[in-house]
């Protein structure tokens, strides 16, 4: 298991010349996406196109509803060039983590006070149901124990990050890990569009949409674009901060779930070998998630001590996080080969999709009635 220092140095080691072409494409697509959806070149930047264009012109009005994050992701999904893979992967992994850390500035105490107790309970209950159901359905459908565990964790907690965190704990074969990562990534992208569309289509309130978005999407990076899309569709208040807060409740359960699966894996090994291997890996909280929490706590303290300056700094950090997140999501699209992902995970896709749809439907019904 790597140390936090080694994780940090990995950011620097991975930033080599090979990432330059892909990063250039991600940044260029980001600038284009902001220009086409907001008339600026970055979040909070100066206007280059008239505001009326995004009201009177139906094409630009539609693009404004889609938003720069989603548009950048979609554009890069259709760019398939190996030269750009390294830069796309770097942006989709490392820049995404930096954006997530900065997003902590949005999740301050005043925002968390608006979270509903019923929403938190529902999210945790559906998380547990998703993982248990994955193990039961996976066995009935003939999938391995490891595949079911990884699929349930990825769907229930935080997508690829959860999958990669649990994989070494249960000594999962890399072929299963790659298949689950590909399928979970694909479903997460679909969710960016599907989840806010469902929330808007059934007439959810903002409070319900926050629980639904935060409780169903796979990646932290999926939550903000989905929340932005819902806000654009509904014309209501920004639901991004609380959606992110609800999502972090699921992320916080990663170490607990990984520990449980580690214990179960040991029991399985003992049943076969009469002992649990001494080199079993223990899960750790990822460093960027710790920094996310520290950012939220620090921003809360700053706003409490100096509200005016604190809110100004918060606004700047949020703008920066959205811009970096857009570059990162462009990287996710750039590094994903849709055809290859579907080919690798074709036997797993129906199982993971069914599991996720059950998760969505259950949380949808509970949210509509109880939140």
UniProtKB/TrEMBL annotation:
Short name of one Pfam family for this protein?
Answer: Cons_hypoth698
Q: What is its main location?
A: membrane
The record's annotation in InterPro entries points to:
UPF0324_pro
Superkingdom field: Archaea
Q: Where are the transmembrane segments?
A: 20-39, 59-79, 115-137, 179-202, 248-266, 287-305, 317-336, 348-370
Where does this polypeptide localize? Cell membrane
Give the bilayer topology: Multi-pass membrane protein
- Entry similarity comment: Belongs to the UPF0324 family.
Question: Mind telling me what this protein is named?
Answer: Sulfate exporter family transporter
